[in-house]
Amino acid sequence: MSRKAAVVALTALAPISWGSTYFVTTEFLPPDRPLFTGLMRALPAGLLLLALTRKLPRGAWWWKSAVLGALNIGAFFPLLFLAAYRLPGGVAAVVGSVGPLFVVGLAALFLGDKPTVKSLVTAVAAAFGVSLVVLKAGAALDLVGVVAGLLSALSMSVGVVLTKRWGRPEGIGALALTGWQLTAGGLVILPIAFLIEGAPPALTGTNLAGYAYLALGNTAISYFLWFRGIERLSASSVTLLGPLSPITAAIIGWVALGQALGPVQVLGMVIAFGATLAGQLAPRTPKKAAPAVEGSFSSTERNGQEVSMDLEVSGVRR
Question: ∠ at Cα 104 (107, 240), nearest 5°?
Answer without folding.
Answer: 115
